[in-house]
Amino acid sequence: MTKDESPMSEAPRVLIVEDQYFVAVDCELQLRSVGIDCVGLATTAAEALDIAEREHPDFALMDIRLASVADGVEAAIVLYERFGIRCIFASAHADAATRSLAERAHPLGWLDKPYTGGQLVATVRECLSALPALAPDASSSHTPSSSSVH
Amino acid sequence: MSTEATQTAEGEFFVVGIGASAGGVEALAQLFDAMPADIEAALVVVTHLGPHRETLLAEIISRTTKMPVANATHGARLQPGHVYVLPAEHVLTVKGAELQLLRLAPGHHERNPIDVFFTSVAKHWRENSVGIVLSGAGSDGTLGVKAIKEEGGLTIAQGQNGSGPAYDSMPLSAVASGLVDLVLPAEQIGAKLQQYVRSLRTLETIVGDDKDRERAQSQAGAVQDLYAVMRKRVGHDFHSYKERTFIRRVQRRMQVRQVGSMPEYVDLLRQDSDEPRLLFRDLLIGVTSFFRDGEAFAALEAQVIPQLFANAGAGDTIRVWVPGCATGEEAYSLALLLREHMLKVDGVAKVQVFATDIDEPALAVARSGRYPAPMLENVAPERLKRFFRQESQSYVLAKEVRDMCIFSAHSVIRDPPFSRMDLVSCRNLLIYFNTELQDSVLPVFHYALKPNGYLFLGPAETISRHTDLFAAVDKKQRIFQRRATLSAAGIRVPTWVPGMRAADVDLRAREGSQKEQRLRRHIEANVLEQFTPAHIVVEGDGSIIYYSARTGKYLEPQIGSPSRQIQAMARRGLRLELRTALREAVERRQTIVRERVEVDLDDRVQLIRLTVHPVIQGDQEPLYLIVFTDLGRPLTREEAAHQQTHADGDVAGLEHELRETRDRLQATVEEYETALEELKSGNEELVSVNEELQSTNEELETSKEELQSVNEELHTVNSELASKVDELHHSNADLRNLFESTQIATVFLDRHLIIRSYTPAVTGIFNLIPGDRGRPITDIAHQLEDVDVTRDIRRVLDEHTPLERPVRLRDGKVFHLMRILPYRTTDEQNDGVLITFVNITEVVAAEEQQRMLVSELNHRVRNMLQVVIGLANQTLHRSADMKQFENAFMGRVQSLARAYELVSRGGWHQVSIAELLDSQLAPFAPEGGRYRAAGAPVLLTANAALAFGLVLYELATNATKYGALSVPNGQVELAWGLEARDGGSSALVFSWRERGGPRVSEPTRRGFGSELLERQLRYELNGKATMEFLEDGLQVMVEIPASSAVVAQARPIAPRRP
Hints:
The complex is a heterodimer.
Chain A: H1 2-5, E1 13-17, H2 21-32, E2 37-42, H3 45-55, E3 59-63, H4 72-83, E4 86-91, H5 96-102, E5 109-112, H6 117-130
Parallel strand pairs in A: 1-2, 1-3, 3-4, 4-5
Helix pairs in contact in A: 2-6, 3-4
Chain B: H1 4-10, E1 14-20, H2 24-33, E2 41-47, H3 57-64, E3 69-71, E4 83-85, E5 90-95, E6 98-103, H4 113-125, E7 129-133, H5 142-150, E8 154-158, H6 169-176, E9 182-184, H7 186-208, H8 213-234, H9 243-257, H10 262-271, H11 275-283, H12 294-310, E10 317-323, H13 329-344, E11 350-357, H14 360-368, E12 370-372, H15 381-387, E13 388-391, E14 394-397, H16 399-402, E15 405-409, E16 421-426, H17 435-448, E17 449-457, E18 470-474, E19 479-482, H18 502-511, H19 515-531, E20 534-538, E21 544-547, H20 566-569, H21 574-588, E22 592-601, E23 604-615, E24 623-630, E25 635-636, H22 637-648, H23 651-742, E26 745-749, E27 755-758, H24 789-799, E28 803-808, E29 815-824, E30 830-839, H25 841-878, H26 882-905, E31 910-912, H27 913-921, E32 931-935, E33 939-941, H28 942-961, E34 971-980, E35 986-995, H29 1002-1005, H30 1008-1021, E36 1024-1030, E37 1033-1041, H31 1042-1045
Parallel strand pairs in B: 1-2, 1-7, 2-4, 3-4, 7-8, 8-9, 10-11, 10-16, 11-15, 16-17, 32-34
Antiparallel strand pairs in B: 5-6, 12-14, 13-14, 17-19, 18-19, 20-21, 20-24, 22-23, 23-24, 23-25, 26-27, 26-30, 28-29, 29-30, 31-33, 34-35, 35-37, 36-37
């Protein structure tokens, strides 16, 4: 619980997009336990965009099927194209067509449901190492294209 | 050819075949009555006997002869001096010295038993065979006589005498063939036969024995003379002929001409103009037989026939003329060769064989196309099998060959020739002609032939000096080709003026004489005209052929059509005298004179002397000169009457008149007798005609019955056929309906991929129109995407295994299952293919849906497991120990499971709120009656049901632990409904009210459950929950926007994208 309370501005910040309450809170719990801040939980694409615009997370954990009509792939593409935010897709069953469609969002990685907390953490860590801004010694300056919107 | 052994062993005696038919009993009786009993010959009687008729013939014959007479039996050995009679319903032949008796199958009868027997005798007994044809109707025996003649035997036909033959067509037919040696009345045959047999036995001595050396030498000299004479007279050298055969034939001519010795005969040959030719004919006889001179026919087949067909197109007719066809063997041999060639080559010309002869009876034989088996020995067995039908002992030509030949009576000498012939085959006819006639006939053949047409002659015939007309193709086999050089003007067509008489010719000849003679004749004519009494010249029957001047006084034309009859033209009074006088003159061949004949001249009477004088010129029919000499001037009737009365007193005159009257009476009686005889013979003819008609009638009756039975059979067959056709019709209709109803597109192709038929549904796949039947499928465009139909079809045709392939139409929406099957005929032969297209669009769609459903299920299960992991983590996070975790987690998982059961039962789509309550609350109040639930029927979405189910579970768990359900009398009231909210939306409102429980306070009731209740509702369903801790129990109010939780109306399950 100590990590939760320490205001670590350098800590990576994540947006969790997931329509299942228990899954969402579990992810939040797991990531926070390894020092990743959760800037918000979203159940729909619109909600995700709202939070992203407001909080500018470093990356997003994106469920593909959402409570909204627009699905996670569409949300991810907008996130990337509008805010430069890339996603780790979490999906129960992503076929090849979906995966190729998702390429436009330059995904960081893929997580197959069901995943354990350990798998989640490992995947997130691996993906973060690919983000230059979040490499072990990098500073916190990022959000490349935030100025271009709204 | 039979062996020499047969000759010597069985040459001891003769075998005489005696053929008879209608009227034969009488003839046989006459024959045997006069037959010497010691004759060294076996006599075999063959007659036409109707079936089922027992015959007493043997008995009748035995009454007339001393020789033993018996019905013939099978295997009986022939013995000289014996008579054998053919029993009814049998056919008789000989084999060596044994009789072969063959019983006919019932219902069959041999039409030509005489031919059959004679030919077998000819074959086995050769020179020692004799054939006798007696009275009978038809032409049986003619071919037999020919066979015997060919082998050098003797042939005899019954000739006319006072009483026979009763029916002469059979002997006449034999005679007409020109092959009968002797024509004799029945009673003379025996003696002649005896003479012949004895003379030939002498001949044996001449040829084979040298006892009488001197005589033999003189004979040998005579034979050399014969050769010389023949070479000189007919231009043919017989040195190369077998001497024995040669002498036998000479001997027979000697018999016929009744010449006693060979040197005498040589003299006869030198003197007689006809005899050398007749002998020549006899020596060469028999060359008209099936394929006689096989080499010549082989040459014709090889060299000429292919040429004939090569020159003719399919529509043309190859015309062949066989003049002198006799009984037709030569014509049929040619027809056979031509037919064989026709069968070998396709689409050839038709063939017409014109076979002609002057001999009508022979033509009748030819037309019947029926020959006894021995006559066909030169016909190859395969030809016999292919072109003949065997009937008992005879062979009948197949219709296909028979129909190629036309037989007609025609004389190559007298009648105008045929024309435009491709081939003229005239074998062994020219040998019957003298050189002059030959010279006139060959140009006729030249005229008859087309340019380059062929002429086929017999081995002893040549084109002599007509090398300008014909070129030799094969000189040895006498095949010639027409030369085209001669102009049309040069054709020498025979002329024949009917009615021209030798006398006229003589008259004309004399006209060409000298001037002096002309003067003399002129004077003679004047004298004749001026000073001779009127006269006319008539023939024996009274027809006038010459009038002198001034005959009008005695003759006058008759009423009606002009007549040359003297009897009709004579004036009154003259007629009777004229007739009797002429008759007398004809009979006596003397000059007849009638005095004082009265001729009526209108009102007066002229007395004349009538003289009839026969004019005899050589051997011609005599003519009669009738001279009318007037006696004094014409008298009036009174004067005449006076003279008559005056004459009455004259006894001599009376006697003269009486004599004349008697003569007239005698003539009348004779005339009457002649008429009577004519009537008799007319009657006989009528009787025979009647008999023939009767037998024809019987035959017709039989035919009619046969036809009737055939008709009945046909009826049966027809009705069967009709019912079969009906069945077929129904089956066809069923099939058509089946095809149309199943909508299975089907195409039938043959092995060349030609469309045989198809069902209407095919038009959606192949662009077929009704006219496309019979076109190859490869020509037809189709709507299938990426399919090489032709290749697939060929594969099936090659491998004989069916092929199945799903195919898609070009529009991309419709799928078919294409099946290509080998088309099996009823006899299991592959004959093309059958292509069917079954529409599987729905199946494909269903499969796709199935696939997506499985995928969706996979997704949901994985998702649910993720939820369970999250739930487990959350529960673990808030549990004090494992016991607490286990209770809480298991309960929640079970609640989740119950909710899932409802969700899946609702097709992952909708769950009734009442059912959800039941399933979630039931475990907490097994005794019942603890809940009171009321609300409108509302359907929750799947997500809402899952979330809400967990909420209910938490509430019930808390109530059981701490609330109303923890005491026996506590109750829970549940109520729900849809309420309208601002902006036209609505919300699902749900209340949970506990009553009768222990007093509760807020802190004790808050925990994971309530937090979950609030946060989950808010998070997942956008709803909210408020809790109030009232005195008598907890009250929870839940409100969820209808848009996120409630199903507006029932929808079927639909897959979502993952």
